[in-house]
Every structure is written in structure tokens, then in C-alpha cells.
Amino acid sequence: MFSNLKEHPADKILALMQLYKDDPRPTKIDLGVGVYKNAEGVTPVMRAVKAAERKLVDEQTTKAYVGLAGDPAFADVMIDLVLGGAVPRDSIAAAATPGGTGAVRQAFELIRMANPSARVFVSNPTWPNHVTILNYLGMELVEYRYFDAETRGVDFDGMMADLADVRAGDVVLLHGCCHNPTGANLNLTEWKAVVDLLLKTGGIPMIDIAYQGFGDGLDEDALGVRLVASSVPECLIAASCSKNFGIYRERTGLLMAVAQDKGLRGLTQGSLNFLNRQNFSFPPDHGARVVTEILTDAKLRADWAAELEEVRLSMLDLRKQLAAELQRLSGSDRFGFIAQHRGMFSRLGASPEMVARLRAEHAIYMVGDSRLNIAGLNKTTVPILAKAIIDTGI
Ligand code: PMP
């Protein structure tokens, strides 16, 4: 039986991590995998997470199963964090999932179950897992233009032109904030135009929000999601706690299904429960409980928000430093987009050959599409990267 299996292409980012590990050069710089790192290159456990975990160790009395959709208290705090009251609670069905990836996967499965002929429109480029999961599920995918290779901003005209092809019942996948891999994001005016287009076409939005708090702030990063969720008849939201709580390996996420027709909530909730049951039964609980502890305890919540804000500002500062150094070296503003982008990533717009040269000649590792993880930098490595970018002719 096993001999019938096919080889799967290696995950490019994980392969890059291995290459970096194997590189003996002491000056090597890792701007690859999408994990936040502080100036010392460490992905720390956040203070509030440690405190909540200590409390759980001391006070948790059982590890018995939770419900199929996870602990309702987790759904409540996450709905509040993401939607901030923009939508009545009783119009939202929600299920905890293994990470944001689990939420994305369950959302796609729900779409397929409800409407097998739905096409899913994804930005070009998007997080590669969106594409591979849709392909794996045999769902039809349509790309829409997103990134302007010249300005390194959003090609909004191209995006709207491509989304004009959306038919009623098709799904439009949007990144809530901090677009991965480009770092280029919609402004509020553009979000409004997308809402108008969705209302006109009957397209159903699905929003993937994996970096809330990494861009312009916790509430600011959720403005687009809140606008969409409060404006359209139905939408799906996949939220991840991996980055903003730094609990990557705990696999903590929530899928929300919002319907203005409150009569649909029971049916939708039942389907979310069913999908969890078929795929893994009960979702992981530890990370969800940690998040719930933090968000329901005023002191822990304030400490978490303060540490997250430090993380956000440190990345913003690195963006500004890199853009300024590149301006100094190039004598032009053409790298200004790095300070405009938000989140952990920026797409430099370099060719795969240039990315390979950065690796070979400067021991600088970034993903082949020239996505760099800003959090992989520090004060010392910013000038090294800037010089390498100019030397490589980017
Ligand atoms: N969506 C996007 C756009 C992401 O970048 C990520 C993380 N790489 C996720 C979802 C899911 O992350 P996780 O499953 O680790 O929570």
C-alpha cells in the first residue's frame, strides 16, 4: 500500500530553515520562517502566557474533554477581540480549531459542504497553504491580482477588476491585516469598496486574520474585518492566536461564521461541530484556555497588550531603520515601501536569482519570492542587509 504513495514537494520555507541550519557561516541571517523573534533571535514565551499557564497548573482540576467546538468562553473572548462588538454575538457560530490553519481548513470544508460549486478567489500571492489546502480539497480556486510589482503596494485597480468576475455564492478570501507574504494592505477606503463589490456580486467574504496586533494595533488591525462582518449577509473569519499570543505550537485558533439571519446560527454551529468531530473530535484546549485566562483577567490582559505593543513597535522600528538605511545607500526613495508595509513580512520584489545570490554571497536567507521576515533583523543586521540588497542590485 505505502508504495502507492506519491512524493510531495518539500515545503519551501521548511527546506529553507534546514539550509540555514546547515550553513556554517557565523554571520548568517535568517529572514525566512514566519515566527516573531526578538533582537536576540529568541521567540519568547510572553509574560502573560507564562502567568496564565502557572495559574492553570495550580488551579486546573481536570483535563476531561471539552465540547466539540471548544470552550464557549474561548469563543466569546476571541469574538470580542476580533469583532469588538461589531456584530451581535447571537449571529455568530464559532468553533475552536488547531491553530489558524485548522480554522482555514474547516472554513474551506464548510464552504464545500454548503456549496460544492463555490469558487474561492485568493490574492496573488497569498499564504501558500491557502492554495495547497484548496487544491487538496479539490476546490476551484481563482487568483485575483493583489501586489503591484512596481510600487510594492496593493494593485487595487487590478484586484477590483478581477473580483468583478465573482458570482453569487463564490468566496473571496481576504487577509484581515498584515498580508502574508507581501506586507501590503488595504486601507479603510479600499475595504469599503470591497464591501460594496461583495454586496453587488453576492460574493461571500472569508477573512484570514493571523496577525492582529502586529500591524497598526489590536483594534486598528481589525477594522476591515469588523466593517465586512457588519455589512454583508454572511461571512467566515479564521483567526489565529499563534503570533499575537506567541503560542505557535499550542495550535490555537477560532473559526467564526457570521450570518445576519440569526435563524441560521444553529444550523451553522451544528455543521462546525460536525466538521470538528470528523477531523479531530475535540480541538486542543491548552492554548485556548491560556488565551481565555489572559483576556478575562484585567491585569494579565493589560500586560499581554503591552508586550504585544512592544513587539509591534519593534518591528515598525526595524522597518523604519531598514528603509532609512536603504535610502541612504541608494540615494532614492524606492525602498520606502518597507516602512509602509505592516506586519512581520515585506516582499522585496527581488528575482529568485537575486534571492539566491543573497544567500550564497551574504548568508542572508529569505523565501524565494523575496519575502523577508522583518523580525529576523536587529540593529546590527539592518545595515548588513541593506548593503547586501544594494550590492545585489535589487
Ligand atoms: N493564515 C496566515 C495568512 C498565516 O500566515 C498563518 C501562519 N503562517 C496562518 C493563517 C496560521 O497559522 P497557525 O496555524 O500557526 O495558527
Automatic annotation (TrEMBL):
Print the keywords alphabetically: Aminotransferase, Pyridoxal phosphate, Transferase
| Cofactor(s), names only, from the UniProt record | pyridoxal 5'-phosphate
Aminotransferase class I/classII large domain ranges (all copies): 27-389
User: Sorted alphabetically, which SUPFAM superfamilies does this protein's record hold?
Assistant: PLP-dependent transferases (SSF53383)
Matching InterPro entries, A to Z?
Aminotransferase_I/II_large (IPR004839), Asp_trans (IPR000796), PyrdxlP-dep_Trfase (IPR015424), PyrdxlP-dep_Trfase_major (IPR015421), PyrdxlP-dep_Trfase_small (IPR015422)
Point out the coiled-coil segments of this chain.
none
Is the Transport keyword given for this protein? no
What's the subunit arrangement here? Homodimer.
- Identification of the protein by name: Aromatic amino acid transaminase
Taxonomic lineage from the root: Bacteria, Pseudomonadati, Pseudomonadota, Alphaproteobacteria, Rhodobacterales
